[in-house]
Amino acid sequence: MLSSHTILCFASGYDAPPTSKHHVMHILAERNVVLWVNYHASRVPSASASDLAHIARKLRQVFAGLNSPRPNLHVLTPLVIPLPASSIARRINRFLLVRRIRRALGHVRSGPVQLWSFTPDVAYLLGRFGEEKVVYYCVDDHSQFTGYDAAQVLRDEEELCRKSDLVVTTSMALQEAKSPWNPNTILVPHGVDYDHFSRAVKEDLPAPPDIASIPRPRLGFFGLIRDWVDLDLLAEVARRRRDWQIVLLGDSTVDLTPYRSIPNMHFLGRKPYADLPAYCRQFDVGLIPFKINELTRAVNPIKLREYLAAGLPVVSTPLPEVELYGPSVNVAKGPEAFARGVSDGLNGQAGASRRAARMEAMRGEGWLAKVEQVCIAAALDQGHLS
Fold first, then answer.
1. Superfamily of domain 194-362
2. Computed from CA positions of residues 377, 364, 299, 228, in that sequence, does the dihedral angle turn out positive or negative?
């Protein structure tokens, strides 16, 4: 495992719900110092309420200075002009970023610097911090996100891939797309916080009040509700089966008004990560209702492993990475097939032995093993193996 280094991490907001970047950096921070730079310059913001709230929150973080939410991990939110297509904005951003990051590194640096980026648009910053290694950790097809300049993202990403020592991808589609730009491109599927989510089977885990009042069976989803979540599919399933309750946890960037009037669809908002096992215990089936498009064909949903670690039967739309799990997941296309998948999850897959098998399949898929795989593949340890 890598140790005694300073990891300069470029990623989107640290205060967002935990995803792969959080798990990876938390593990690295156990033996290294991590400087997490909140960086999100590829997307052009809109005047929507969610974007305005994000801007306000980020400005507060900018003026708050360096934040240290856990030992050896420091979060910096620099001021960035969100105009990725503007050469003038890029020059200003480069000047401001480099100066601010160098100052922060001066305060927290401990050992040689390695740059790890979860965002595709930092190639113009490479070489500015004396980094000995560059790792691009690609978890999404960033060019397909709504609000992004796809052509610019791809140009930036190609440059970053070509200049990186290692490109890590989390799905076969991403590996296939990035390999032509860098032969040192590897596939490392997401891990799972097994100890955390397996707590869902504990009988003494109390039911959160807001879900306890909802009748069973409960079909559950947690995560950000964005334009890739097929709410129309869920609404049709809800209309077909009024006795099923569909429960969604998470912030939303889409208009939920048309769905709130459906009596058996429940939007409970974002929940703390620490509380997710308690909610999983109250789910009868875990849902992955993603639309099938260029973005989701490349996605490897972490929630699949989290549901399975919690012992839940899973029903998903036909995402390529999910289909690899075969009998562990009911893959269904369209409302009728999706409803059949749920019925099978509620009946044929509900037994204790099936639950134990799902959990056991996830036991060896922890994040530590994934981080070790990345470090070894990149020869990042260089004498620091232990």
1. Glycogen Phosphorylase B; (3.40.50.2000)
2. negative
CA 254 to chain centroid, in Å, comes to: 18
- Is 234 within 8 Å of 176 (Cβ atoms)? no
Beta bridge mates, 322: none
Tell me, what's the pLDDT at 60? 44
DSSP label at residue 210: H
- Residue tagged 């910053």 (tokens): 125
Alpha carbon of residue 357 to chain centroid:
25
| Other C-beta atoms lying within 10 Å of the C-beta of residue 56 | 10
d(CA 93, CA 106): 20
User: How far is CA 158 from each of CA 11, 134, 143, 181, 314, rounded to the nearest angstrom?
Assistant: 18, 14, 11, 6, 35
257's CB contacts (< 8 A; 6+ apart) are none
The 3 state secondary structure assigned to 285-304 is: EEEECECCCCCHHHCCCHHH
First-last CA distance in the chain: 6
Structure tokens at 54: 């994000």
pLDDT at position 344: 94
> pLDDT tens across 118-156, in order?
999 999 999 999 999 999 999 999 999 998 899 999 999
Q: What are phi and psi of 145, to 5 degrees?
A: -70, 140
* Whether the Cβ atoms of residue 275 and residue 208 lie closer than 8 Å to each other: yes
363-375 pLDDT per residue, tens: 999 999 999 999 9
Written as one string, the DSSP assignment of 41-64 is: -SBPP-SSHHHHHHHHHHHHHHHH
Where are the domain boundaries for CATH 3.40.50.2000 in the chain?
6-191+366-377, 194-362
One-letter amino acid of 279: Y
Confidence of residue 10 (pLDDT cuts 50, 70, 90): very high
Distance between CA atoms of residues 384 and 15, nearest Å: 31
**Rounded to whole angstroms, what are the CA distances from 231 to 224, 234, 256, 263, 346?**
12, 5, 9, 14, 21
- The domain made up of 6-191+366-377 has a fold known as Rossmann fold (3.40.50)
Longest CA–CA span in the chain (Å) reads: 61
β-strand 265-269 against 285-288: which pairing, if any? unpaired
Phi, psi of 130 (to 5 degrees): 65, 30
